[in-house]
């Protein structure tokens, strides 16, 4: 007879460990914490000198988070194998667009203005967080019926926008984990919230 692995809660009650794995909200939040940590300590290289002050920043960071989003879509939206590479790629693009937008605001467009650093960082974090989350949603939504629609798009974008406001705190302490970990965990959890409503599409073979 198969025995389901279990864990004990604070009251000593035995709970099936599989319940955690079946709920995309805490699972993707946890994986977001992992990817945010990897993005902090294993961010990859960057490429400067592109036109219009554009660059590639921490190229591995977008891949770490892309793997989390791709796993969530694959696991909870019908196990479409095409989704994995597409979502990783679109999430990486979303990361690079978000970082470039933030840098344009904080280090180029508004730096020559009289606007102090802190409000400039808040504005950059808000804008970059919003765009990054929205593009991440846009890459995942074609593979998930539950992610399609304005409510899901607005909710994921709002999570990214609010958590993007951590940028000034991250900059003042010179520690990207203050932004990366909660942003990736929060956006992943919000995607998981809608994936939890998923009616799986037929799996690709």
Q: How would you summarize the topology of this molecule?
A:
Blueprint lengths: L5 E3 L5 E3 H6 L1 H18 L17 H18 L6 H27 L7 H24 L9 H15 L2 H7 L3 H19 L10
Antiparallel strand pairs: 1-2
Helix pairs in contact: 2-3, 2-8, 3-4, 3-8, 4-5, 5-6, 6-8
Notable characteristics:
mainly alpha; 8 helices; disordered N terminus; two-stranded antiparallel ribbon; elongated; 205 residues
Care to describe what's here?
The protein has 205 residues and is an all-alpha fold. It has one domain (24-195). 65% of the residues lie in helices and 3% in strands. It contains eight helices and two strands; from the N terminus they run ββαααααααα. The chain has helices at 17-22, 24-41, 59-76, 83-109, 117-140, 150-164, 167-173, 177-195; strands at 6-8, 14-16. The chain has a two-stranded antiparallel sheet. A hairpin with a 5-residue loop joins β1 and β2 (14-16). α6 (150-164) packs antiparallel against α8. The longest helix has 27 residues, at 83-109. The radius of gyration is 18 Å and the shape is elongated. Mean pLDDT is 85; it is low at 1-7 and 201-205.
Strand % is under 5%
Order of strands, widest sheet: 1-2
Structural class: mainly alpha
Rg computed from alpha carbons, rounded to a whole number of angstroms: 18 Å
- DSSP helical segment count: 8
Order of helices and strands: EEHHHHHHHH
Instruction: Work out the helicity level.
Output: 55-70%
Number of strands: 2
Ends distance: 31 Å
Give the uncertain stretches in residue-range form: 1-7, 201-205
Mean pLDDT: 85
Shape: elongated
Q: Note the main sheet.
A: 2 strands, antiparallel
Domains (count): 1
